[in-house]
C-alpha cells in the first residue's frame, strides 16, 4: 500500500466521520432552540419579532460549528495538502 | 488488495456510516421542533401561522445538516476524487 | 479474497447497518411528533385540522432522513458503482 | 474460505443485526405514540375517533422504518444479488 | 473449518443476538403503552372499553417488530438457505 | 478444534447471552406496568378489577418476548439442528 | 486445548455472565414495583390488601425472567449436554 | 497452559465479575424501594407497620437475585465441577 | 509464564475490579436511601425514630451486596483455592 | 511507510476527529443558552435588551471552545510543525 | 518478562483503577446525601440536629465502600501476597 | 519508525484529543450557567448587574479548565520537551 | 523492553488515569452539594451558618475520595515500591 | 524502540488524556454550582453576599480536583522521574 493510497483511505474515512459526528450536536441544539422559540411565540405572541430575530442569530451561531466540520470534510476530500504532496511525490520521485 | 479496491471498500463503508450516523441528530431535532410546534398550536391556535412559518424555516435549517451528510455520502459513492485517480492510475500506469 | 468478493462483503454489511442505524433516529422522532400531536388534539380538539396537517408535513420531513438511508442501502446492494466496476474488471481483465 | 461462504456468513450476520437494531427505534416510538393516545383518550373521550385515526396513520408511518429494515434483511437472506453472482461463478467458472 | 461449520456458527450466534436485542425495544414499548393504559383507566374508568381496545391494537402492532426478529431467528436456525446450500455442496461436491 | 466442538462453544455462549440480554427489556417493562397498575389501584380502588385484568393480559404479552428468548436458548442447548448434524457427521463420516 | 476444556471454559464464563447480566433487569423492575406499591399503600391505606396481592403476583412474574437466567446458568454448570458428550467422547473415543 | 490452569483462570475472572456486575441491579433496586418506604412512612406514619412489612418482603425478593449471583460465584470458586474433573484428570490420567 | 503466576495475575486484576465495580451500586443506593431519609425527617420530624430505624435496616441490607464483593475480593487475594493448589503443585510436582 | 506519510495520516485523522468531537459540546451549550434566552424574552419582554446582550457575550464565550478545536485542526492540516520537519528531513537527508 | 515484573505491572494497574472507579459511586452518593441534608435543614431548621446526625452516620456508611476500594489498592501496592511470593521465589529458586 | 516520528505521531493525536474531549465539559457547563443567568434576569430584572457579574466570574473559572487543555495541546505541538530531545538526539547522535 | 521500563510505563499511564477518572465523581458530587447549599441559603437565609458548616464538612468528606486517588497517583509516580525494587535489581543484579 | 522513547510516548498520551478527562467533571460541577448561585440570587437578592461567598469557596474546592489533574499532567511532561532516569541511563550506561 503506497503512501498516496493510504492517505486517500484515511481522508475518506475521516471526512465521512467528521461530518457525521459533527452534525449530531448542532442538529440537536438547533432543534432545542427552535422548539423553545415556538413555545415562546405561543406564550407571548406579541414578542414574535424579537423572538424570531434572536432565534435566527442563534441558529446561525450554532450552524457555524456544523460548518466548521463541513469545511474540514471538504478540505480533506478536495484540497488535502497531504494528498497533493503525496501524489506529486509519486509522479516525480522525491526531490527528482 | 490493490489501491482501487481498498479505496472502494473504504468509500462504501464510510458513505453508509456517514448518512446513518448523520441522520440521527437531525431526525431527533426535527421531531422535537415539530412536537413543540404542535403543542404551541394547541396552546395558541391564533398564532398558528407564525408558528408554522417559524417551524418550516427551522426544519429547513436542521435538515441542512442531514443534507451535508447526504452530500458527502453521494460524493464518496459517485464522485470520489481519490477513487477516480486510483482507477486512472490502474488503467494507464502512474505517469504512463 | 478477490476484489469483487471483498466489495460485496463490505456492501452487504454497510447496507444493513446503514438502514438499521438510520431508522432509529427518524422512528423516535416520528413517535415524539405523533405523541405530541395526539396530546394537542386532546387539548384543543377544534384545532385538529391544523394539527394533523402540520403533523403530516413534519412526518414527511423526518421520514426523508430515513429515506436517505434506505436510498444509500439500495444503491449499495443493487446499483453499486464500485461493485459493477470490479465485476467488469474480473470478467474482462483490466483494460483488456 | 471461498467467496460464496464468506458472502453467506456476512449476509446472515447483517440480516440479523439489521432487523434486531432496526426494531428498537420503531418499537419505542410506537410505544410512545400509543401511550400518548391512551392518555389523550382518557383526557378527551369525545375526540376518541380523531385520536385513534391519527394514531393509526402515525403507527403506519413509524412501522415503515421497521419494514425498511425487514425488507433489507429478507433481501440479504433470500434475494442477495452478490450471493447469487458468487454461486453462479462457483458453479460455472468466471466467464466459463 | 469448512464452510458448513462456519455458516452454522454464524447462524447460531446471529439467531440468538437477533431475538435478544430485538426483544428489548418491543418489551419496553409494550410496558410503556400498558402502563399508560392502566393510568388512563384509573383516570377515566368510563372509557375503559375504548382504552383497552386501542391498547390491544397497539400491542399487536408493537409485537409485530418482535415477531420480525423471531421470524428471522427461526429462519436462520431451521430454514437457512445458505446452510442448506453448503450442506448439499458438502454431500455432493459442487455441481457433481 | 473440530466442527462439533466449535458449534458447542458458540451455542453455549449464545444461549447464555440470549436469555441474559433478552430478560432485561421484559423485566423492566413488567416492572413499569406493574408499578403503574399499583398506582392506578391506589388512585381508583373501584376499578381494581378492570386494572388487574388489563395488567395480567399486558404482562402475558410482555412475557412473550422473554419467552421467545428462552425458547431460542433452549433450542440452542437441547435441540440444536446444527449441532446434531455435526455430531452425526463426526460419528458416520459425511455421506458414509 | 482439547474440546472438553474449551467447553468447560466457555460454560463457566457464560454461566457467570448470564446470571450477572440477567439479574440487573429483574432487580431494577422489582425495585420499581415495590417502591410504587409502598407509595400506593401510603396514599390509599385501605386498599393495602389488593395492592400487596397485585404486588406479589407481579413480583413472581418478574422474578420468572431472573429464574430463566438462573436455570440456564445451572444447566450450563451441572447438566451441560455438550460438556457431557465431550467428556464421553474423550473417555471412549468417538463411536469406539 | 494446561487445562486445570485455564479453568482456574476463567473461574476466578468469572466469579469476580459475576458478583460485581450482579450486585449493581439489586443494590440500586433495594435503594429505590427503601427510599420510597421512608417517604411513605413520612407521608402516612400510621401505616408504618404495613409499609415496613411490605418493604422487608420486597427486599428479600430483590436480594434473591443478588444471592443467585453470589451462589454462582461461590460454586465457581469452591465447588466447580469442571475444575474438579480437570484436576482428577491431571492427577490420574484420563480413564487411567 | 507458569501457572501460579498466571493465576496470581488474574486474581489481582479480578479482586480489584470486583470491589471497584461492586461498590458503585451499593454506594449509590445508600446515598439514595439516606437522602430520602433526610427528606422524610424534614417532612415528618415526629417519625424520626421509625425512619432512622428503617433506614439503618435498609442500609445494612444494601451494604450486604457490597460485602459480598469485598468477601470475594479478599478470598481471591488471601484464600484463593486455585492459587494454593498451583503453588503446591509447583513445589512438589503433580502427584509427586 | 515512511515518517512523512505516517504523520500525514495521523494528522488527517486527528484533525477530523478534533473538530467533530469538539463541536458537540459547544453546539449543545449554545442551543441551551439560546433556548433559555428565548424563554426569558417570552417571560419578560421588557428585559429583551439585557437578555440578548448577555446571550451574545455567553455565545461568544462558548464558541471560543469550538474555535480552540478548529484552530488545532487547522494547525494540524496547514501548519503542522512535525509534518514540515519530516518533509524537510525527507528532501535533504537528516543533517545533510 | 519474568513473573515478578508481570505481577508488579498488573498490581499497579489494578490498584489505580480500583480506587479510581471505586471513588465514583461513593462520591456521587455522598454528594446526593449531603445535598438532601442541606435541603432538609433549609426546610426544617429545627430538626437540624437529627438531620446532621443521620447524615454523618450515612456518610460514614457510604464512605465504607470507598474505603474497601482504598484498602484493596493499598494491599495490592504494599502488601501483595502474590508479589511477595514471586520475589522470594526469584531470590531463592523455587523450593531451593 | 524512528523515535522522533513516533513521538510526533503520538503528540499530534494527543493534542487533538485533549482539546476535543476537554472542550465538552466546559462548553456544556458554560451553557448551563449562561442559561440560568438568562432565566435569573428574566425573573429578577433588578438584580441584572449582580447576576451578570457573578456569571462572568463563573464563566472565567469554568473557561480555565478548557484553557488547561488548550495549553497542554499547544505545549504538545509547539514546545514538546520529549520531541525536542529526540530531534537533538537524532541530529547529533546520543551523547555525541 | 526491560522490567524497569515496563513498570515505568504502566505507572505513568495508571497515575494519569487514576486521577483523571477519580476526579469525575468527587467534582460532580461537590458541585451538587454546593448547588443545593446555595439554594438552601436562598430559601432559608437565617440558617446560613448551619448550612455552610454542614456544607464544608460534606465537601471535606467528598474531597477525601479525590484525595485517595491523588495519593495513589503520587505514590505510583514518586514512591512506587515495584519501580524501586526493579531499579535496584537492574543496578545490582538479582541477589548480587 | 528504546526505553526513553517509550516512556516519552506514554507520558505524552497520559498527560493529554489526564487533563482532558479530568476537566469534564470539574467543569460540569462548576457550571452547576454557578447556575444554582445565579438562581439563588434571583430568588433572594438580599442574600447575594452570602451566596457569592459560598459560591467562590465551593468553586475553589471543585477547581482543586481539576488542578490535581493539571499538576499530574505537568509533572508527566516537565518533571517526569521515570523519563529523567531513562535519559540518564541512556547517556551513561546503567551503573557506568
TrEMBL record, chains A, B, C, D, E, F, G, H, I, J, K, L, M, N:
Q: How does it sit in the membrane?
A: Multi-pass membrane protein
Ranges in a coiled coil: none
Q: Where is this site: Reversibly protonated during proton transport?
A: 63
Q: Which InterPro entries match?
A: Alt_ATP_synth_F0_Csu, ATP_synth_csu_bac/chlpt, ATP_synth_F0_csu, ATPase_proteolipid_c-like_dom, F/V-ATP_Csub_sf
Judging by the UniProt lineage, the source's domain of life is Bacteria
Claim: Transit peptide is one of the keywords in the record: no
Instruction: Give UniProt keywords alphabetically.
Output: ATP synthesis, Cell membrane, CF(0), Hydrogen ion transport, Ion transport, Lipid-binding, Membrane, Transmembrane, Transmembrane helix, Transport
Output the Gene Ontology terms for molecular function.
Answer: lipid binding; proton-transporting ATP synthase activity, rotational mechanism
Q: State if Cell membrane is listed as a keyword.
A: yes
Ranges where the V-ATPase proteolipid subunit C-like domain occurs: 13-76
Give TM segment ranges: 55-79
Compartment(s): Cell membrane; Membrane
Instruction: Give me the Gene Ontology terms describing cellular component.
Output: plasma membrane; proton-transporting ATP synthase complex; proton-transporting two-sector ATPase complex, proton-transporting domain
HAMAP family in the cross-refs: ATP_synth_c_bact (MF_01396)
Recorded family membership = Belongs to the ATPase C chain family.
The protein's job, in short, is: F(1)F(0) ATP synthase produces ATP from ADP in the presence of a proton or sodium gradient. F-type ATPases consist of two structural domains, F(1) containing the extramembraneous catalytic core and F(0) containing the membrane proton channel, linked together by a central stalk and a peripheral stalk. During catalysis, ATP synthesis in the catalytic domain of F(1) is coupled via a rotary mechanism of the central stalk subunits to proton translocation. Key component of the F(0) channel; it plays a direct role in translocation across the membrane. A homomeric c-ring of between 10-14 subunits forms the central stalk rotor element with the F(1) delta and epsilon subunits.
This chain's protein is named ATP synthase subunit c
Q: Which gene encodes it?
A: atpE
Amino acid at each position: 500500500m503506497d503512501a498516496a493510497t493510504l492517505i486517500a483511505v484515511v481522508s475518506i474515512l475521516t471526512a465521512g466521520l467528521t461530518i457525521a459526528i459533527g452534525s449530531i450536536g448542532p442538529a440537536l441544539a438547533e432543534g432545542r432552540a427552535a422548539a423553545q422559540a415556538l413555545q415562546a411565540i405561543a406564550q407571548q405572541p406579541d414578542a414574535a419579532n424579537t423572538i424570531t430575530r434572536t432565534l435566527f442569530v442563534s441558529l446561525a451561531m450554532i450552524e457555524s460549528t456544523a460548518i466548521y466540520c463541513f469545511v474540514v470534510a471538504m478540505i480533506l476530500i478536495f484540497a488535502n495538502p497531504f494528498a497533493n504532496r503525496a501524489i506529486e511525490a509519486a509522479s516525480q520521485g522525491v526531490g527528482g
